[in-house]
């Protein structure tokens, strides 16, 4: 990577932070007033060789090297903060001097155009909601389903409040509290916007009072994950502020953003993901990690958009196409030979169109990056699986690149699919609507239909974490071939190829549905990706069948995961006999994303319209700039 490329990449990761809290925060503007007791009435309401024939290029303007700044003594998290004139206290993170100054002149080229296309389908594509005194059956059914989702959330919230209040999470089987993210009350922060959306305003106020007392200057954890803090805690605070306009949320968001900024204080300005904030507060030297996930690195691009630090830059990753999973943040080398949209890759690609929207369309590089990446993903990673129903569905696999010196590298599509990659349907739907790419709507439909098929063939109606399928030889007609399926099971099950193996016994023992070769991970961890895509496609297209698909999925998940103290991850979703086996885990994602998307699916479509809000990777709604929509549809 060239010197200019390294600097572009590092600047890109330390600006999208000059640019969203500007939307939220003007130091000279009066703070917004706490809303009076009139809540809203509608509460329902980098380019890999071999993938595109080009060498990996990161381009950008050369900017000055960072200069170490003096590191004077500074307070630790346990020492008193600086008192301000208004009697409040300034966070130590804001007053902490940086060792490596970052220059503010590395913003990418901008486009003055603000007119963005409408994303959400026209209101005529959705059923009209009738009044309370003359409700039709469809409205009654929708409200009944919405109420069922809310009841599931209330049940989990009540358990968390009684057994794990102010902890990060509740272990639902043992009923004990757990701290998984710094001990900063993750479940409280992560669910503030969900409480507001569901009309639980007294619970919202109670949670907000607790959140206001969180001390982000110290943590019982030795290391904290800045990626998770960014998308869940900072994202949660911003999402709740955009809904309620309560200034306490903005104050806390700025405090967290100030803290995250310190994690960028490394020689090359690459953020530290697994970060010792105690060492940082003592002004010990920091250096970026040798092994990092690009998803974690790039996740800063939404919540930190517009963070008003004059020396902060975060342009995000450059006009390239695809990125491998692993990244050496210390040397700025892209390591790895596997390219995918699942697992460690999801936030990278779905962030691109969302960043374009939140920046008001002023930064065309995000559109260019999305369009380039999506062309390669659709042409090289997506595959149609062999299935007994001969359905025209798609899944997102992985591409492994094998370099050959002096020759073009060879690529191989791996047909192992991850539940987490099911976000891709929603991503293509969003990008297709935003950038007027009709082919992406078809891709989105087929990707979502693939994940719904994988759920349907599972005995419990839930797609497992990981499954191996067989790719059709072409995108055309793909008739069922049982012998091919059995050969692949034999090959997958026994690498030594025992010719006397009883394939039928393997199929029975491992509960393999026709077309499924193996299920390496049979769990369901309360993931939101499928319902997120259902919600997104429903809002973008108005497909009415998705309401039924979403309801069936909710019923299956509720039946398999419900335990005394909430809902628990499931050990095995493909064994139809006996209990599924509950794991003692109810990650905050369950209430903050999965149930939120189910609830919004059965809400009137003008509730958090996609033309008004962008959902970050953790499901938090960030309000779009008012001027970004001109009604072009």
TrEMBL record:
<comment type="pathway">
    <text>Protein modification; protein glycosylation.</text>
</comment>
<feature type="region of interest" description="Disordered">
    <location>
        <begin position="32"/>
        <end position="88"/>
    </location>
</feature>
<dbReference type="GO" id="GO:0005783">
    <property type="term" value="C:endoplasmic reticulum"/>
</dbReference>
<feature type="signal peptide">
    <location>
        <begin position="1"/>
        <end position="27"/>
    </location>
</feature>
<feature type="compositionally biased region" description="Pro residues">
    <location>
        <begin position="65"/>
        <end position="78"/>
    </location>
</feature>
<dbReference type="InterPro" id="IPR050749">
    <property type="entry name" value="Glycosyl_Hydrolase_47"/>
</dbReference>
<feature type="active site">
    <location>
        <position position="346"/>
    </location>
</feature>
<dbReference type="InterPro" id="IPR001382">
    <property type="entry name" value="Glyco_hydro_47"/>
</dbReference>
<feature type="active site" description="Proton donor">
    <location>
        <position position="228"/>
    </location>
</feature>
<dbReference type="InterPro" id="IPR012341">
    <property type="entry name" value="6hp_glycosidase-like_sf"/>
</dbReference>
<keyword id="KW-0106">Calcium</keyword>
<feature type="disulfide bond">
    <location>
        <begin position="422"/>
        <end position="451"/>
    </location>
</feature>
<feature type="active site" description="Proton donor">
    <location>
        <position position="465"/>
    </location>
</feature>
<dbReference type="Pfam" id="PF01532">
    <property type="entry name" value="Glyco_hydro_47"/>
</dbReference>
<dbReference type="GO" id="GO:0016020">
    <property type="term" value="C:membrane"/>
</dbReference>
<feature type="compositionally biased region" description="Polar residues">
    <location>
        <begin position="35"/>
        <end position="46"/>
    </location>
</feature>
<dbReference type="InterPro" id="IPR036026">
    <property type="entry name" value="Seven-hairpin_glycosidases"/>
</dbReference>
<dbReference type="GO" id="GO:0036503">
    <property type="term" value="P:ERAD pathway"/>
</dbReference>
<dbReference type="GO" id="GO:0005975">
    <property type="term" value="P:carbohydrate metabolic process"/>
</dbReference>
<dbReference type="GO" id="GO:0005509">
    <property type="term" value="F:calcium ion binding"/>
</dbReference>
<feature type="binding site">
    <location>
        <position position="617"/>
    </location>
    <ligand>
        <name>Ca(2+)</name>
    </ligand>
</feature>
<keyword id="KW-0326">Glycosidase</keyword>
<keyword id="KW-1015">Disulfide bond</keyword>
<keyword id="KW-0732">Signal</keyword>
<keyword id="KW-0378">Hydrolase</keyword>
<feature type="active site">
    <location>
        <position position="529"/>
    </location>
</feature>
<keyword id="KW-0479">Metal-binding</keyword>
<dbReference type="GO" id="GO:0004571">
    <property type="term" value="F:mannosyl-oligosaccharide 1,2-alpha-mannosidase activity"/>
</dbReference>
<comment type="similarity">
    <text>Belongs to the glycosyl hydrolase 47 family.</text>
</comment>
<protein>
    <recommendedName>
        <fullName>alpha-1,2-Mannosidase</fullName>
        <ecNumber>3.2.1.-</ecNumber>
    </recommendedName>
</protein>
